[in-house]
Queue: 3 jobs
Job 1
Amino acid sequence: MNAQVTGLGWATPLGTGVDGVWRALLDGADGMREQPSPHRLRSPLVAAVPSDGPPTHRLVAMAADTLTAAFADAGLDCHDESVRIVLGTSYGGDLDDPATTSLHKWAHAVAGRIGHPHDPITVTTACSAGADSVLIGAELIAAGRCEVAVCGGVDVITDAKRLGHSALSTMSTSGLRAFDETHDGMLLGEGSAMLVLESADHARARSARVYATLSGAGSANDAAGMTAPDSSGTSVVLATRRALLHSGLNAEHIAVVSAHGSGTPLNDTAEAAALTELFAGTDPDPLVFATKGALGHSLGATGAIEAITVILALRDGLVPPILGLRTPMTSLALPAGKTREFSGTAGMSLTLGFGGFTTCLLFTRRPGL
């Protein structure tokens, strides 16, 4: 697997410009704000993307704008019929719209809005949907089904999602503090992120700028429960080892990891156990960072957003701080409350979703690229 990443686009609570949002993350910016709710919730805080309209309308608009930005960043035409689109979400806006009977109709509307001739492939693997869309896009290219795939995830905050996570007690009462001893849950975010993947030959033939290479991808499912992961982290280890096998790299080659870092005790425990097992004996440990403290947990979009953060970290040799981290719960090399430098050319993004879905995306970048 050697899909070239030639275009990026995202919409986040900190803005829409790729470099501007990245600089804000490095500076420790926080996108969390209070948002009124008709329900009694564990927390009023969310990380929202400013926009108006009902949830599905906002979902379609955000996805269309981000796709358009990614096509433009890669120097490609949205109307190109040779390009395939893969879009992921969790429930999108459907939980708040009882008349909705399809988790694909919104994606059809997105393609129509940007003038793309094909229906997108739609992925709904809970919180790993954005990462799984990237994995599927790379597989389409590897199988010769297309030369270019634009893929990613999008999700929006809704009243039903806020109420659901509050009722499940997965929502924090005070703040999202990933991997901190005092963590007590996640806070919802929203956003969209799209990556343009190309075969190496296609990118070379048109002299495309290459951000990084998607060198490996792996997935697994722990089948432990609908909302709680297997605390051993076995499926995270399996997904990561599959990604390493695809890439031909070993654990010691990984310089940086964008962790799922949801802030829930169960997820953080499983992920920390997996990272400790995976990188036992490596020297130095990879630098681990997590961005949900700044951007919230954007559910079906988070895997694509965090894939972009790994690519940018590899480009700049920098990782942002983990907001709220004061007393780390593991011995991993965590960047506490400050931006950290690192050297290396390989990094990975981990996503853990409800239903046991786990996905690992592994990116590499040539020195000087």
Note: Residues 134 and 295 are 20 Å apart (CA to CA).
Job 2
Amino acid sequence: MTRIDKPGIYDLTAAEYHADPVSTPSLSRSIALLLCDLSPAHAEAAHPRLGPGLEDDPDEAVIAVDAKEDRDAGTAAHAIFLRGENIIEQIPFDTYQTKAAKQLRDEALAAGRIPLKQTKYADVMRMVDVLEKMRATTGFFTKGRPEQTLVWQAGDVWCRCMVDWLPDDPSAPLLDLKTTGGRARSNTWSRGAFDKGFDLQAVMYTEGAAVLREGEVASMQFIVTETRPPFGIRRFELSPDAIDIGQQRLIYSRSLWQQCMAEKHWPAYPLEPEWIDAPVFVQREWDWKLRQLPTWAARIAKREAATQRIIDAKQWGG
């Protein structure tokens, strides 16, 4: 495809976006996360223009079967709800243990479609129904455009992101649709938010929108829906403290990216020794055991004294 050499808002396919269409290799949220959490070498290897290109999901090869089905269900619902595009190939079997089922699955994958077994297909359709009811009652995902690619410059660094829903009103929050195979609990969801770089996502995406639309974007909101009955939906927004952490991580990753690009050097992990702290639960467990030590010592002494009395009684014929 023709390389993008001007900042702007573009309507690209997911494949075009993930291939990095920018004239100069650009920084995305997933690459920024690798720079923060792993090393420049990991970022280079994952970038589609610099290495083998594992940007989508470097852990996908080890994903569990159930988790993969939930992810596929989320991808399918995402396409139907946002783009009105049904990319599902319904497999009329409940397992892939038969040759016929495996053949249908493989043919669907070869055609670029998502194979879903009967029960999972029904779940996706019900999930989409729940999302449509949410759209009708709240007005979310109504006035705007789905899956828009934002390309902008921050100093010398080209950045890009794909927004699930870009509202027509520049002051309205950007919307990101996420699915979970578990439950949409705030405490559970927040645990994975930083591991997955949602703080970076909120900061980068709102920055890109503000730059390109010459105004401040209020926020980014995450619409999280469950992939299993009752397909609950919750709406999350990161706190100011969380956004501050995301901003710091963006500054760090962008500075590191700029340096590595300029020097054409992508170092791996540093070899200096690192402190490893005991997890909190280990510290708590040993604190409890140490507090119990006098009690245990007393019990042992009491048991030994009782044993000695029995021995003495037997010796003296008691």
Note: Residues 280-315 form the longest helix (36 residues).
Job 3
Amino acid sequence: MTVRVAIVGTGNIGTDLLAKVHRNPVLELVGVAGIDPDSDGIRRARDLGYHATSDGLDGLLREFGDIAAVFDATSARAHRAHGEALVAAGVRSIDLTPAALGPAVVPSVNLGDHADAVDVSLITCGGQATIPIVAAVARETPVEYAEIVATIASLSAGPGTRQNIDEFTRATARGIERVGGAARGKAIIVLNPAEPPILMRNTVYVRAPGLDAGKVSESIAAMVADVQCYVPGYRLRSAPLIDGDQVTVLIEVEGAGDHLPPYAGNLDIMTSAAIRVAEGMDVPTSNDTAEVAR
């Protein structure tokens, strides 16, 4: 059974989602919605033979009533309105904005816990890249503290990212605690202006008293392999460094190059995680849809 999905937002992230959904055998793209009739995303969708509207989500919902889920690649402000409209229509949301209305999901960590959620939040790109590592340690031993530094190419940081740096750090820190399992979490983001642009790089620092170095190393390796199932460019830059109760892990993320350049791994990991969520969600029956709408 395929999952009928739609995309709202025709900027870089929405257009990258379009490329990924187009080649996905599990997902059936119903349509694409934006607000700019001249946007590249709308043009590309039509070129691929998909229905595309510049009347936003309202236009999409007027024309289609059998959508299982909508990828929201707009803004946190827009998603607050979209979320209400989608609940009323009995359609689930996969939220790529910082709105954080629904449960936070990192596919390799807790997708199974929220496969039937009405509105799923993908936290941040830094969260998607680093929370799996924290969770890999936490499933072996209690994590007292975790700190991450996400470094991305300045060219891959759009206006939304730049305007929401504080929200990025807060949301990522919450995710480190609530999804990753750390008692306390901290997040830092760095925009690197280097030319040529660097790949996304992440440093994860974990303090876990009483850890077993062998078990933690095996858990991290297994988690990296799980993430690579949906983000092939996700990899360790070196073996985990374990010194007493401290673990340091260096992660690099290279994008698939679908619409975004390979250095934009920070954006690619978000769209890849969104696709994985859609693949793994429970498709609602007519009864489920009625319940969601209520």
Note: The two ends are 25 Å apart (CA to CA).
